[in-house]
């Protein structure tokens, strides 16, 4: 049994590739782990994991990526262990209310990491979106409805696929920006990626 490392973009694992001297490519089979680059977003992630997840092959999926943060007391570049993730937009508007797909009777939109692996990071709840939040009103509505700490475009897809295949799953996110009306100049992508990669390298090294 092996660990599968999953990220949306190769750029988010730049230093990890360098450290382990990995070849270019979106699916890499190394000695102690496999690595899958899915592409950005929940659709690409679900499709890619659907192709690569075999319950008998992996005992752990590790989802690494950067994320936006709703909580301004958390510094950019901080790392969080996302233990709860919600498909925020999956459902139906009902006037001013929102009905989840669970309310509609069509399944689940809310997932938890049930892993017992000890992680030395604060736990947090995230939302997964198709559209990065960048409008004050919709951000306020999202916070009021779901009270998330972070936002990504893939997390809940990874939890969903792992639940379908009964595979243990962890999601580690590094904060690159605050969720606010879009201003990419304020994003600290380089810092977030460096901290994420340092943690990922140490974690995988310790694991083996
Ligand atoms: O511009 C760059 O240099 C660059 C390098 C690596 C990655 C990126 C991305 O934009 C990755 C997209 C990835 O980031 C997640 N993300 C980050 N902030 C947010 C957010 O505020 N709301 C939702 N998602 C966010 C997301 O999971 C994307 O997959 C750029």
UniProtKB/TrEMBL annotation:
Which EC class is this protein assigned?
A: hydrolase
Q: GO: which molecular function terms?
A: hydrolase activity, acting on glycosyl bonds
Among the Pfam families in the record, one is PNP_UDP_1
Catalytically driven reaction(s): futalosine + H2O = dehypoxanthine futalosine + hypoxanthine
Q: Which InterPro entries match?
A: FL_hydrolase_MqnB, Nucleoside_phosphorylase_d, Nucleoside_phosphorylase_sf
* Keyword Hydrolase tagged: yes
Domain annotation Nucleoside phosphorylase: ranges: 36-196
Pathway given in the UniProt record: Quinol/quinone metabolism; menaquinone biosynthesis
Q: Which UniProt keywords apply?
A: Glycosidase, Hydrolase, Menaquinone biosynthesis
Q: What does this protein do?
A: Catalyzes the hydrolysis of futalosine (FL) to dehypoxanthine futalosine (DHFL) and hypoxanthine, a step in the biosynthesis of menaquinone (MK, vitamin K2).
Q: Which family does the UniProt entry place this protein in? A: Belongs to the PNP/UDP phosphorylase family. Futalosine hydrolase subfamily.
What's the protein here called? Futalosine hydrolase
Which organism encodes this protein? Pedobacter fastidiosus
């Amino acid at each position: 049994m092996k660990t599968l490392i999953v990220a949306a973009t190769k750029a988010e694992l730049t230093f990890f590739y360098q450290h382990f001297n990995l070849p270019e490519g979106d699916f890499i089979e190394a000695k102690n782990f496999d690595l899958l680059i899915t592409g950005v977003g929940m659709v690409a992630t679900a499709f890619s994991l659907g192709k690569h997840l075999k319950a008998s092959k992996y005992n752990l999926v590790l989802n690494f990526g950067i994320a936006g943060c709703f909580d301004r007391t958390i510094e950019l570049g901080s790392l969080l262990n996302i233990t709860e993730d919600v498909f925020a937009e999956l459902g139906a508007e009902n006037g001013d209310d929102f009905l989840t797909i669970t309310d509609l009777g069509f399944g689940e939109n809310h997932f938890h990491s049930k892993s017992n692996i000890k992680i030395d990071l604060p736990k947090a709840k995230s939302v997964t979106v198709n559209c990065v939040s960048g409008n004050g009103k919709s951000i306020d509505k999202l916070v009021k409805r779901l009270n998330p700490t972070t936002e990504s475009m893939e997390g809940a897809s990874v939890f969903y696929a792992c639940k379908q295949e009964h595979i243990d799953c962890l999601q580690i996110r590094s904060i690159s920006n605050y969720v606010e009306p879009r201003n990419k100049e304020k994003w600290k992508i380089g810092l977030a990626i460096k901290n994420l990669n340092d943690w990922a390298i140490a974690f995988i090294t310790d694991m083996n």
